[in-house]
Amino acid sequence: MHEARDSAQSNASLPQEPVDVVVVGAGVIGCAIADALATDHDVVVLDKSGVAAGATGRAAGVITPTLFYGDHPDVARYANEFFRAFDGTNGFEFTERRRYDYVVEEEVDSARARAATLSDHGFPVTYLETDAVESEAPRLRLDDFAGAVRYDDAGWVDPYTLATALKQRASDSGATFLLDNEVVAVSPNTVELSDGEIQADNVVVAAGFSTPDILGRPLPIRPYRTQCVVLEPAAALDDQFPIGRVGSEHLYFRPEHNGDLLVGGSHDIVSDPAAVSRQADESFVKEVALTIPGLVRGFEDAGLVNGWAGVDSATPDARPILDRVGDIFVAAGFNGLGILASPIAAETIRSHITGEPAAFDVAPFSFDRFADSGSDFELRTTSDVGR
Ligand SMILES: Cc1cc2nc3c(=O)[nH]c(=O)nc-3n(C[C@H](O)[C@H](O)[C@H](O)COP(=O)(O)OP(=O)(O)OC[C@H]3O[C@@H](n4cnc5c(N)ncnc54)[C@H](O)[C@@H]3O)c2cc1C
């Protein structure tokens, strides 16, 4: 988690002439969209705070496009390739790691079928029995599980570094980042700030849970709070320790470079997202401390390094809205997957603005799929969706 703020170019004066694109929000999504458009557009990015100051700077950074978008293979392939191609750019690093999704007895048939389907699509995904998992990843403990689905194309990133590396590349292409600038309202060609306005041919709102407020209209998006803790085991994890997800416990984990373990979970809809605590709850820390030793060996006496909470937003089908809403472009509702979905969001919004075909079918992210939805729906978070 990063509290540091990248404030380069903050407080620069507002452009007096109309620009091609204004992006509201300098989280990973706003930075990725700016990066995708800045090569051939004048782009201005506005944020009320700093780069990655919202959910982005609090994310775990687990990247498994195949798991969450594998039913749209071209989408998953695009994101998988993006992270590998971006590795090494402006300090960004993609750490490749296998991912094991623990499977309980009742879910073996569906897990096997899912692995087979993804494998048929060309993804390196395999269902393994418990013994096979534990022999190749000996610190994983699957006493209460029948097996796991292994994803060989997963990895993790530092989300703050991803956002700043995207911002840097966008800036190098000519984008301007105006930080500490709160947007009050938007209309199709005007962005209003507390002390002025900017005219733009295209306005993109990528402001996380604040997106509906900025648009001035409801969207089928619900803010929810989610948490992470970092544990230090007695013996550090080695440099092959994998990523894991345990859907039945609503927990996921990944290694840190220093051999600690980051554990994420807990998803609660919140009515006042700006006001909720950004600290991890004691009850969540206790739950993790009690549960992890049953899932990963060597954590019986682990120390607590730190913990935190953040707010992301959910949609009814756990996919983001990446579309024109009225005459304004929206990129919001990332369901705990916005780091891995950032290249997908950037490519989709670029396609809508330029009219160029995207590298994949963008229909799964259309706004009109929610024509009949209100903003009061059941939460389907990443650990519940179970795809
Ligand atoms: C604890 C936690 C763990 C997570 N783990 C993962 C993970 O492992 N993998 C993954 O893919 N995703 C993960 N996520 C989800 C991911 O963090 C989000 O989906 C993603 O960061 C969303 O990015 P964003 O740019 O849309 O929003 P944000 O990062 O929230 O950025 C929105 C920006 O808009 C700005 N803003 C808001 N209102 C205004 C305004 N009025 N004017 C100007 N600017 C404004 C804010 O200051 C902020 O900088 C996790 C999230 C959390 C909280």
What is shown here, in short?
With 387 residues, the chain is α+β, with helices and mostly antiparallel strands.
Number of domains: 3
Distance between the termini: 27 Å
Say which CATH homologous superfamily of the largest domain is assigned: FAD/NAD(P)-binding domain
Biggest pleated sheet:
8 strands, mixed
Strand content: 25-35%
| Low-confidence blocks of residues | 381-387
What is the CATH C-level name of the largest domain?
Answer: Alpha Beta
Which small-molecule ligands are present, each listed once? flavin-adenine dinucleotide
| Residues in helix, % | 25-40%
CATH architecture of the largest domain: 3-Layer(bba) Sandwich
Describe the structure.
- A hairpin with a 5-residue loop joins β15 (251-255) and β16 (261-269).
- This protein folds into 3 domains: 19-58 and 159-220 and 316-385, 3-Layer(bba) Sandwich (FAD/NAD(P)-binding domain), CATH 3.50.50.60; 98-152, no CATH class; 222-314, D-Amino Acid Oxidase, subunit A, domain 2 (D-Amino Acid Oxidase, Chain A, domain 2).
- The longest helix has 17 residues, at 338-354.
- Mean pLDDT is 94; it is low at 381-387.
- The protein is globular, with a radius of gyration of 20 Å.
- Helix content is 26%, strand content 27%.
- The strands form 3 sheets. Strands 1, 2, 9, 10, 11, 12, 18 and 19 form an 8-stranded mixed sheet that branches. The protein has an 8-stranded mixed sheet with strand order 6-7-5-14-15-16-13-17.
- With 387 residues, it is an alpha+beta fold.
- Bound molecules: flavin-adenine dinucleotide.
